[in-house]
Each structure stands twice: as structure tokens, then as C-alpha cells.
Known about the structure:
Blueprint: H1 2-18, E1 23-28, H2 37-47, E2 51-56, E3 58-62, E4 67-72, H3 75-86, E5 93-96, H4 102-115, E6 119-121, H5 136-146, E7 152-153, H6 157-164, H7 169-178, E8 183-186, E9 196-203, E10 209-214, H8 223-236, H9 241-257
Parallel strand pairs: 1-2, 1-5, 5-6, 6-7, 7-8
Antiparallel strand pairs: 3-4, 8-9, 9-10
Helix pairs in contact: 2-8, 3-4, 4-5, 6-7, 8-9
Amino acid sequence: xxxxKFFSLIxxxxxxxxxxxxxxxxxxxxxxxxxxxxxxxxxTAVAHHCRxxxxxxxxxxQSTQNVQRLYPQDRCDFLQQADVLLADVNPDWVKIGLMGxxxxxxxxxxxxxxxxxxxxxxxxxxxxxxxxxxxxxLVRVVNQRLLPFVDxxxxxxxxxxxxxxxxxxxxxxxxLLDQGxxxxxxxxxxxxxxxxxxxxxxxxxxxPYHLTCPKLPDxxxxxxxxxxxxxxxxxAQHREMKEAVQAxxxxxxxxxxxxxxxxxxxxxxxxxxx
Length: 274
Ligand code: PLP
């Protein structure tokens, strides 16, 4: 009797609080260092007060120096994990990172077709340490099957060239937008020579929107994951696209400015500040 009364009293408030956080489904790989991948996604979501659901595409063997090996999930296992989760919860946004395998990428295309939610895709094709993380077949699946679902794509310069086969940034971006994604944020840190880093947001309807920040001195593992995750968190909080990428870049820059070097290799972002 008392128990029934207690729950009927707290339930409405509890339900209000429980449903107030934006929810994001993160689909990506596990990085044991915690610098990149699903751990980066979840830390970024927590810092933005968003709720993270996660589906792991692959495990990896890696250090802060480089990725040694990918261990993709079995396609059927992955799809079953998605089925069970998505029969229960209904994420507001989806963010996709490392897929690591063509079969998993095709499974993700099936999930997106059914889910019909806005998507941020970070096309992770190679690790900062140099290891290839996607072959030509996976690049084809991204182009043909995934880009039409994508609201915001966040390639670096090398990824834009590999996805499109076009060497210059502008034609590469035009090709990506023609494939069906709404916005492309082309990041510049991987090839910037000067003292500034410039990222540019493109769409088919608006002028390019340039965002600059001072270049930081170290080499970072997980900066691209952090940026794309911060973008999806901002978008899930109903920020308009330009405002979202601006805030996400600021968050990422701060996480790198306060980065730590826990191992022998790259620095890892610090996403724990609020
Ligand atoms: N491992 C995983 C699981 C990732 O998701 C990524 C990037 O998204 C990497 C490694 C490579 O990260 P970076 O290029 O920052 O070194």
C-alpha cells in the first residue's frame, strides 16, 4: 500500500527528469586507450548531459601509438544487438564512427533505413598513427549506401580525397553533397601548415562557413571522434547547424588544450571538464 503510494507520488516527476536528456545512438569501435571510439563518444555525451546508447562495431588492439588490429563483430550478432536495443529505446540522433568491416557497414545501412533518424558520420578511414582502417569496398559502401542517410559528414582532407577520388577540397565536397549528405564539415588539422587550423562547413544552399582556431603543438588521438561526437550532442540539443559545429569545435579545442599523454604515443583529449 505504502509502496504503491510512494511510486504514484514520485512517478510523474521521475518520468519528466528521465526523459529530459537528448538521446544519441553511438555506433563505433572500441579503443582500449579510451582516446577514440565509443569511449570518446560516451565521455563527450556525458560532458554535454546527453544520454548515450552504444553499439560496438569492432574491438581493436591498439596503443596510443597506432592501431595494430581490428576484430569486427559478426554481422548477425551486431544486428541482433541493434534489434534488441531499438525495440526498446528511440534515440533522437545517431553518430557513426569506425565501422571496420563491409558487412557491418551494410548492417548499419539497414539499421538507418529502418530507424529514420538524423545522422552524423565521421568516416574513419585511417588512424592518426597511419594504420588503414577501411579498404576500397568499405569506401564504396560509405559512398553508395550510407551518405544518403547522413545529415552531417566530418571528413578530414585525406578522407575527403579517398571517399571521392578528387584531389582538391572543393570538388571533393561537391561530390559528397551530391551523394546526398546535408552538410559536410571538412576538417583541416591533418594538413594545416600554419599557426591556425581551419574547418569549413559546406552545404548546397549556404555559403561555406569557416571556423578557425589556434593550432595546438602536440599530436592527438581521438580529436576527430571528439569533434563529431560534440557535433551530434549539440545537434541533439536542437542547436542550428552552424552554431552546433562552432560549439563542437570549441569543446574539442579545449579537450585538446588540456590533453594528457598517459602512454608512449599521442596525447589523449581530456573531455571531462564541463
Ligand atoms: N580506433 C577507433 C576505435 C576509432 O574510432 C578511431 C577514430 O575514430 C581510431 C582508432 C583512430 O583515431 P585517431 O585517428 O584519432 O588516431
